[in-house]
Each structure stands twice: as C-alpha cells, then as structure tokens.
Design a protein that fits this description.
This protein is of the alpha+beta class. The protein contains nine helices and 20 strands.
C-alpha cells in the first residue's frame, strides 16, 4: 500500500470513528439514522448531497441521496443491494466500503428506511420543489446544456497505442482473392467505463477503446484481415454480422463452433471477403446477452456496393445511429447481467443518452442518409417534421422503397432511410417506444437526439438547451464516412480507464 493510501485510510478510519461516537451521543436518532451519520456522511455529506469531505478524492461524485425524482423511482430491494454491496454495486468510489461486511441485514434495512425518510418524505419533496424554484427552469441534469453539466471523472481517457511495425499475428501467406483490394486492420478489446448518461457510468468492453467501436468502411468484394487482441479479463470473439463468409466460415466468430474464444492476452485472426454490401455491424458472440446487450461490444461496418441504387448518388450527408440499452443494476460488475429477467433502464444512441447525444446538423437541401442499427434494443424511430424514405433493409436495397414517419428496427437489424432536408428548424428525433426516451424513468432522456439546420436564422432563445453546443460531427461518423476506405476511430466515443476492483480492495486492506 502506498504511503498516500495509508494516510488516506487512517484519516477515513479516524473520521468514521469520530462520526460514530458523535452519532451515539444522540439518543433520539433512529438506528438507521445513527448508522447513516456514522458511516455514510463522510462521502455523501450530512444531507446526502454527494459532497462529503471524502468526495474530492473520488473518481466520481457519490450518488445524491436527496435527488427526490431519482430515489422515488428506486425499489427498496435495489436500495438494499446498493447499501449492501457499496462500491462494487455502484462504484462511485473505489474506497466506498461494502456495508454487507459491516452491518447485519436488519441494520441495512434500517438504513434504507432512513434513506426513504431522508429523500422521499413530504419534507424532501418540498425541499426538492424549493430548490427547483430557486434554480429556475434547468433543475434536472438531463435538462442542462453541455456547458453546465458536471464532467464525469474516471481517470485518463483511453488512448490507443501507436500501431506497431509488426502485426499481432503474421499476415496470411495466401490471399483469398489476389485481385481484390486488400485491408489489414489491428483491433483490441479493452476494459473501460463510459458516461452513458448524466451521472450514470457503465463499465464496458470497447473495441479499440471506444463504444461504439471504430468504423470499418470498405468496398463490396474487398479482402479483409483483422487481427483482434483481447486485453480484458474475460474471453471474447468477433462476429461480422451480415457478412456471408463464403469459404471463410472459420471467421464467423462463434465460440465453440467456428473458433475457440479469444482468451485474455491472446489474439485471433479473421480473414474474409466483404461480399455483402450495405449497413452491417460487428459484435462479440460470447455470452451475447451480457457482452452485446449490456457491455457495448459492437461497432459499425459499412460496405459500399458495386452497383448503388440511384438515390444513393444524391446523398450529401450520412449518419450512423446505433441503439442500445443499459442496466444500472450491473453497471460496475463485469461478468454480470444479461439474464432474461434483467431489464435495461437507460437507453442511448451511439452509447450516449440524451442530452449527452450530440446535435446532428444539416443544411437546407441536404439529402441525409441515416443508417439505423438496433444493437441491443428494438427501435421505433421517429423524426419530427419530415417523412423518411426507407430504402435498405439489412444492407440490401428494397425492391419497393416506401415512405414512413415511424420506422421499426428489430434487434440486430439495420434499416437505411433517406431524409430530404427541406424543412428548416430544430427537430426532435427519438425512439417512439416511450420507455426508451428516459434515463431510469426520468424524461427527457434515452434514445433521443436533435436535428438542427445550420442555416437556420440565429435564435435568441436563451432557454434553448443546446444554444452554445459544439457537436462533434464524428459522433454519428459523418466525417469518417467521407474518408477513404479503412478502419476509422472516433475519439469522441473513447471510454475512460478505471481501477480494477480487486486491486482496489487489496489497496484498502490494512
């Protein structure tokens, strides 16, 4: 244990002891309140506001126990789990203890009862209303513009290693098609965390350190060699969803069927022809309900057709939208989640819930192509102010394109739509499955973004939440799709490093 850690731990123990002794001198307090004041306020503050004396040392500010709307949506069972498992359950700090080791089941229930009194009583509701009135119209983090939202601090953002001179696995000595354009890509799988929604952090496995993974953009008939190195603590594979894998079935990425899983520290080489054109994607095929459904192991793949349909030549701007859900109950427990009874309670586009999803800007006259990809949730996509021409399904052009204002996308499917930008304004775009437009039941949030016309007359609407926003065009891979064929990383989607839980527990031990 480092000297700083020792000093920090001694300080915490001294403060906890002092707090406990002080609480014991207040006989009128309930058992739950005594425990809360003696053990929890060092991090959460005396009023549960998340700013106790230890908060500045933590990677992420502790959960705010006086957030009325947040806490009223939680069940007692969920609160008991959080109090019991502590940092392992919500990982707001690696130093937050697991109270299940310190308190009896009855004590934990007493703490939960006190939390209900603290955050969900009539007095708490009145306090929340008073704070809302004092704060003005922006009372929710989900309503705040990017300039005033607090930044999530998780350690250093992932920066990929510079590509080495030697591939992780030697390139094959034989080509599948010597006449085809050839691409060699190096990919890694990393353990990271992402701020999926305001004040909500999710541990993920990211391809090249980002979620969604980097864009793979090639041409129909191109030959690909992709070396994948597993830098995580669990096994994975990569399935190239939609690719035919003609004469290359061993590159289909199914563990126990076409290959052995890629174990931690190992690498595997995929070698195939991109024989199917259109909007495709790639994802892990190990324990899919967790790795894909909960941990963000997916990325976009676009294969340009040899014979595009006429309307494709009219497109002036493209955007990729990958829809997903997240389960906060297992947010910080890699290897957990994906059970049939588990339900996501956060929803996102390109791994960010509104308002962390970026504004998509167009110009009047643009012909916008949206590539809708349902990575882990089904979608009913709706764009205000415009109809959409549905042109492609699962990569292939439809014999009869059709107009729609709500487009259904089943899980795993891809639908391409064309939008003619002929109605200047600011337009909401969202999943019309209503639960998907919330962050843990709080609206607005979820799978929502704004379409904004660049040439719109400058507005003096001070209340407009994205008035001063500077969206990254690569949030939707719009600029990356204009680049020559290759593997294109998008730094806007990179995750953040986090400390290993077991190492942190060892560091805490006296």
């Amino acid at each position: 244990m480092t000297k700083f850690a020792q000093m920090f731990l001694v300080g915490i123990l001294a403060l906890l002891g002092a707090g406990y002794a002080s609480a014991q001198q207040e006989p009128d307090l309930s058992r739950g309140e005594r425990i809360y004041k003696s053990l929890c306020t060092q991090c959460h503050g005396s009023t549960g506001n998340g700013w106790g004396i230890n908060a500045p040392h933590m990677q992420v500010k502790p959960r705010n126990h006086t957030d009325y709307d947040e806490m009223i949506s939680r069940t007692d069972a969920n609160l008991i789990k959080v109090v019991t498992k502590g940092g392992v359950a919500i990982n707001k700090s690696v130093l937050m203890p697991s109270w299940g080791n310190n308190l009896s089941d009855d004590d934990i229930k007493e703490v939960v009862t006190y939390l209900r009194k603290l955050c969900c009583s009539d007095e708490a509701a009145a306090l929340a209303a008073k704070r809302a009135a004092e704060a003005g119209p922006m009372t929710k983090m989900s309503q705040a513009p990017p300039s005033v939202r607090p930044q999530v601090e998780l350690g250093e953002r992932f920066e990929p290693e510079p590509p080495g001179a030697t591939p992780s696995i030697p390139l094959p000595t034989q080509r599948i098609d010597p006449s085809a354009p050839f691409h060699h890509f190096e990919m890694t799988i990393e353990e990271l965390a992402i701020p999926a929604a305001p004040e909500f952090v999710m541990k993920v496995w990211g391809f090249n350190g980002q979620v969604p993974g980097p864009l793979i953009h090639v041409g129909e008939g191109d030959e690909l060699v992709v070396n994948v190195t597993n830098n995580t603590t669990l096994s994975h594979t990569v399935h190239w969803h939609g690719t035919y894998q003609t004469n290359s079935w061993k590159s289909d990425g199914v563990p126990g069927i076409t290959q052995k899983p890629i174990e931690p520290g190992e690498a595997f080489q995929y070698h195939f022809i991109a024989s199917k054109p259109g909007s495709l994607w790639y994802h892990c095929h190990v324990n899919v309900p967790e790795h894909v459904g909960t941990r963000g192991m997916w990325g976009p793949m676009v294969v340009d057709p040899k014979e595009p349909i006429p309307i494709e030549s009219e497109v002036t701007k493209e955007a990729i939208l990958m829809f997903s859900g997240w389960d906060s109950d297992v947010a910080m427990e890699l290897g957990e989640g994906g059970h049939p009874r588990d339900l996501p309670n956060y929803f996102s586009i390109n791994a960010r819930a509104f308002p962390l999803s970026h504004v998509l800007r167009v110009k009047t006259g643009d012909v916008l192509r949206l590539r809708l990809m349902a990575a882990s949730i089904e979608v009913a996509f709706h764009l205000h102010g415009h109809d959409m021409l549905v042109t492609h399904k699962d990569g292939l052009p439809l014999d009869t394109p059709y107009w729609a204002d709500v487009v259904d996308v089943p899980i795993g499917a891809r639908i391409d739509v064309i939008v003619r930008a002929d109605n200047p304004g600011r337009w909401l775009s969202h999943d019309h499955i209503e639960q998907h437009t919330s962050n843990n039941g709080v609206m607005p949030g979820g799978a929502v973004f704004l379409l904004e016309y660049e040439d719109l007359e400058k507005s003096d609407d001070e209340w407009y939440m994205f008035k001063d926003a500077k969206p990254d065009p690569d949030f939707y891979y719009s600029e990356k799709l204009k680049l020559p064929h290759g593997l294109h990383e998008a730094p806007v989607h990179r995750g953040y490093r986090f400390e290993d839980d077991e190492a942190a527990e060892d560091e805490k031990a006296p």
